[in-house]
Specification:
The complex is a heterotrimer. Chain A is mainly alpha-helical. The chains are: A mainly alpha, B mainly alpha, C alpha+beta.
Chain lengths: 268, 475, 310
């Protein structure tokens, strides 16, 4: 009886765990865009940014963002994408660099507050002459066109459902199932890692109306992966496809059934 | 009563009563591992029921239609009628998604249970005379199940399964001499031949199921005719079957298992998303998605292809593709050995006797070792098939995983054989869970005047000393 | 497991005596089992009713799946408990009969087969041989309609729709201009009039200036020294090689991780692919639109038997 209860309880817990949790969409991207467009005290931000840069970044990237870095594998910030690159890297916790054990520099919690990130971005952006943060709004984007563009330019690496994949060597195309629209826009602008500048879009040029529309469209699709993932079939098990599905079939499906067979057969 | 009168009606015309009574008393041994084949059978039942439902809604056509269903990102897109029908099943038909997912989970569990049942039969030596024919039928059933699964998940014409079809096209192309002709015959032309979806449909709902169901019937009929094997133990000999009757015990148990299988598959079909084709989108021959894997049971082939060396061979202008070695030669040899195993083993053991008592795996260390090594080969291929996913999970590059597994493919089976052999020998020696009831000891006087105990040889109840019944001493 | 193990009894299936229930009173364990089975069935009934409610109020996949599981599972538990505790279960022994018919039986079968067919077989006449021949010919002929399933391969695997002067278009059919792509931009292109054609799919990449290392005749097909085009069909198993890695300027095929070096002629440097991606030589027409100089110089995609023969 106890074993039966445990079995049933385990299944119930399993069911609860596998039921997808509804996520609330944050709107940090919108706040960011508003702040960027607002009236900031640029000189004060720049000063603060310089101070932060000297403390946290200069030891690898060199004393001058526009100059060379200290190590061959560390890029100079001169042409990595300016303010957008700093904003993206620091806000997603990739920078300052932690010890990464594996292929890619991992996302994490940002180690600076929003104001400090803004200050860094302003300082570096003005120093290298590329101070613009993309202005992106998925609400302006066309979901269907975005899906189409995504399929052409992004799906090969990031997966049609944004699951992400290994790219060989030390590279990973990250999962896009929980990223902000600003992440998408900034990544397309700067082309981090193995990603090309322009994100593979055929006629991308930062600042043009066409490119802004393209990015809005793609951001709309990526946003839909997060807000309306259409996981109506149940727990997505990571969305990585048949490999985890096979694992579940063996461990949970066949596992429960073998236990059931043992119970049914008794001590035969 | 109504039941009595109905029984009388049928019996007067078909003579069923005496036949059925004899059948109901048939004895089946009661070990849990004998139920594994039934898990496969009942998964098949679920597949047939859910599959029939799906057939009413699926359109096996590549005709171009415009999608206008509830999945917003695809609205207005041009898709094939096949893909559109599967979207309709998933989004608009009530209980459609439940049936579709249950069907797919049932397919995964179906093949898994066949494999585990095959392992039970292999490791206990149940394929020996007189059951070689049933072994062949079982292997054939495995192939049919693989074919059913592959054709089935390719029917929605989505991006992921379409990529799989492309690879299958390349594999058939890699067959030497006749490859191009066979491929064109199967597909109806150059990839992506438009006919392929409707042909897969014919295979999936008609040709393969017909063969599958017929062979399952023969498989069970032979089992009933020859009676089931049993593990050696108290009262069990080569000349009898000890267990429970078909009615009522085994019937209740089998129906209970059927209900459990249905319950588990329905549970998975409801709460675990599988093959979300709307996320992958419709198949376009110039698009691709990552990660790209087939369903688990084809995963070993995917892994073999990833492990395969880049050696193509061109002689006098005729090319043997590098795909040939991992995808044509290796499965041919591996499944050939598997199919012919009863005769391969007999050649070495020279054992032509009838066997109705099973071996404990520990008592046949060579066979168990080879089986374990074979499973390890397939396991390595399965791991490689998911190398990009494991790479992200374990923070290791795919190149590292591939190199390790390439070496592993050579080393691991040998190590597995040796370790398994050693474990079997060790277990045999310790007499853990002896197969026989302890027959006791004999007390005797020593010449010095003390006492010594000598354990008696375990025998079965009616004194029948068959070789398999003496457990640890068989070799 | 049965609570009242009476040991095994030897039974001949053909002559089994009737057994009534040996004990009318249920033991404690059996009463427990009966109670649990009852609860399981009651839960199953509730779940079954729940299914009606859910279905007719619009349906919900997760709830339906769980309710089905509870309903079937409840029934399964009840029957399992019944089988193991509430039946008068005892171990039964059945004798195995000889499976073989024996040499006498087989001889009788052979005789029965042969004696009806008459003296013709015994004499092995011409008729038998003609019968075999007709059977063989007809059998083979019956397979002929199968050949209608597929056209003869002919040359089709060795050619694509690309021709000399074919304008390069994207998947919507829009012509592609020189310098349209940004640096490290890539685009899937087709010959004009065949947008979307599977065997013609080509990847146009604009690489960093000066980064290509190709022999002269291949560089002649790279407009501006940066616009290089390779067949997008992986030479291993045919998947579209869509993953372009901008920093290393290499392509990764997601199916089996073959990796191709764009700057060095599309040569594979890791993975199971054996042959480089065929390059499509391009030039520019007078309207600055990219055009092909001809078809690929070798068959695209996976290898096949007569690949090397024209």
């Amino acid at each position: 009886m106890r074993r039966t209860a445990i079995l049933l309880g385990g299944v119930a817990v399993l069911a609860l765990l596998l039921t997808p949790a509804t996520g609330a969409a944050t709107s940090r991207g919108a706040a960011r865009a508003a702040a960027a467009a607002g009236q900031d005290d640029i000189p004060a931000l720049e000063a603060r940014g310089r101070q932060l840069y000297q403390n946290a970044c200069a030891s690898c990237h060199g004393p001058d963002p526009n100059g060379p870095s200290y190590y061959p594998r560390v890029p100079s910030l001169r042409d990595t994408g300016g303010a957008a690159a700093v904003d993206w890297a620091v806000r997603t916790g990739r920078m300052p660099w932690k010890d990464n054990k594996g292929p890619a520099i991992e996302r994490g919690e940002p180690r600076f507050g929003e104001e400090d990130i803004r200050a860094l971005a302003v300082y570096v952006g003005r120093a290298v002459g590329d101070a613009q943060i993309p202005d992106v709004d998925p609400a302006r984007g066309n979901l269907q066109r975005g899906r189409d563009l995504y399929g052409q330019a992004c799906a090969a690496c990031h997966g049609m459902n944004g699951a992400g994949a290994a790219l060989g060597g030390e590279n990973i195309a990250v999962s896009l199932q929980d990223v902000e629209p600003i992440d998408v826009a900034e990544a397309i602008k700067i082309g981090p890692g193995q990603m090309p500048v322009g994100g593979g879009l055929p006629d991308y040029e930062f600042g043009t109306a066409q490119s802004r529309q393209d990015v809005d469209d793609i951001a709309a699709y990526v946003e839909s992966l997060r807000t309306t993932p259409y996981n109506r079939g149940g727990a997505p098990i990571g969305g990585k496809g048949p490999v985890p599905e096979g694992f579940v079939a063996w461990v949970i499906g066949l596992g429960i059934l073998v236990l059931a067979a043992r119970w049914i057969a008794g001590r035969g | 009563m109504m039941i009595e009168r109905s029984l009388k009606y049928v019996d007067e015309r078909l003579g069923t009563a005496s036949l059925a009574r004899k059948a109901l008393r048939k004895v089946f041994p009661d070990h849990w591992s004998f139920l594994l084949g039934e898990i496969a059978l009942f998964s098949l039942v679920v597949l047939v029921f859910t599959g029939t439902f799906l057939t009413f809604f699926y359109t096996p056509s590549v005709q171009d239609v415009v999608y206008d269903g509830p999945y917003a990102p695809l609205q207005g897109q041009h898709v094939t009628a096949a893909y559109d029908s599967v979207m309709r099943i998933s989004f608009e038909v009530r209980a459609g998604l439940l049936m579709r997912q249950t069907h797919h989970w049932a397919a995964l569990v179906f093949v898994a249970s066949i494999v585990i049942h095959l392992c039970r039969v292999f490791f206990t030596g149940a394929f020996r005379r007189p059951r070689e024919v049933n072994w062949l039928i079982g292997i054939l059933l495995l192939f049919l199940a693989l074919g059913e699964g592959f054709t089935g998940y390719s029917l929605p014409d989505d991006l992921l399964s379409g990529i799989g079809l492309r690879i299958f096209y390349a594999v058939t192309l890699a067959i030497p001499v006749i490859g191009t002709w066979v491929t064109y015959l199967l597909f109806g032309g150059e990839f992506p031949a438009g006919d392929i979806i409707s042909r897969l449909f014919v295979f999936h709902i008609m040709l393969l199921p017909a063969l599958l169901l017929a062979l399952v019937g023969v498989h069970i009929a032979i089992l009933v005719l020859q009676k089931h094997t049993q593990f050696p133990g108290h009262g069990r000999t080569e000349r009898n079957v000890v267990g429970k009757r078909l009615w009522p015990e085994q019937t209740f148990k089998s129906v209970s298992l059927l209900l459990f299988v249905t319950a588990v598959l329905a549970l998975l079909g409801g709460i675990a998303q599988i093959n979300p084709v709307w996320q992958y989108g419709p198949f376009e021959p110039f698009n691709v998605t990552s990660p790209a894997q087939p369903d688990w049971y084809i995963g070993f082939l995917d892994g073999a292809l990833r492990l395969g060396p880049p050696w193509d061979l061109t002689l006098w202008g005729f090319t043997t593709s590098e795909v040939f070695w991992p995808a044509v030669l290796f499965p041919g040899i591996a499944f050939g050995i598997l199919t012919l195993w009863p005769w391969i083993e007999r050649r070495f053991t020279k054992d032509r006797a009838e066997h109705h008592l099973l071996d404990r795996p520990r008592d046949t260390p060579v066979r168990t070792g080879i089986g374990a090594a074979g499973l390890m080969v397939f396991f390595i291929m399965f791991l490689e098939g998911g190398n990009d996913i494991f790479g992200v999970l374990l923070n290791v590059s795919v190149e590292t995983i591939t190199r390790i597994l390439q070496w592993g493919l050579v080393i691991a089976p040998i190590v597995t054989f040796l370790v398994t052999y050693w474990i079997c020998k060790g277990l045999s020696r310790t007499r853990l869970r002896p197969a026989e009831v302890n027959a006791g000891v004999r007390l005797s006087r020593t010449p010095e005047g003390g006492y010594e105990t000598v354990p008696l040889e375990p025998t079965s109840v009616d004194g029948d000393r068959t070789p398999a019944a003496t457990g640890p001493h068989s070799e | 497991m049965t609570d009242s193990d009476q040991g095994s009894e030897r039974v001949d299936v053909d002559r089994q005596t009737e057994h009534g229930p040996s004990n009318v009173e249920l033991s404690g364990g059996q009463r427990r089992a009966e109670r649990r089975a009852g609860i399981a069935l009651a839960v199953a009934i509730v779940a079954g009713i729940g299914l009606f409610v859910v279905y007719f109020s619009g349906g919900q996949t997760q709830v339906e799946g769980i309710l089905f599981a509870i309903a079937f599972g409840g029934l399964g538990i009840a029957l399992g408990l019944w089988a193991n505790h509430l039946l008068d279960a005892r171990e039964v022994v059945e004798e195995r009969h000889e499976l073989t018919s024996g040499p006498a039986g087989r001889q009788a079968f052979e005789d029965a087969l042969v004696e009806e067919v008459g003296p013709v077989i015994a004499r092995r006449s011409l008729l038998l041989r003609l019968l075999a021949g007709a059977g063989g010919a007809l059998g083979l002929a019956l397979l002929l309609p199968v050949l209608s399933l597929g056209p003869a391969p002919g040359n089709s695997l060795k050619v694509t729709p690309w021709r000399r002067g074919s304008r390069v278009v994207d998947e919507e059919g829009e012509p592609v201009q020189l310098n349209q792509l940004p640096e490290n931009g890539f685009l899937t292109v087709f010959p004009e009039g065949h947008a979307g054609a599977a065997d013609a799919q080509t990847l146009l990449i604009r690489v960093r200036p000066g980064s290509l290392e190709l022999p002269a005749d291949r560089m002649a097909g790279v407009p501006d020294g940066t616009h290089i085009a390779y067949s997008k069909i992986c030479t291993h198993a045919g998947c579209p090689v869509g993953l372009y890695r901008a920093e290393s300027q290499s392509l990764l095929c997601p199916c089996h991780q073959s990796q191709f070096d764009v700057a060095h002629g599309g040569k594979p440097f890791f993975g199971p692919a054996a042959r480089p991606l065929p390059q499509l030589l391009l030039s520019v027409d007078d309207k600055n639109i990219l055009v092909a100089q001809g078809d690929f110089t070798e068959p695209v995609g996976p290898a096949f038997w007569d690949r090397g023969r024209r």
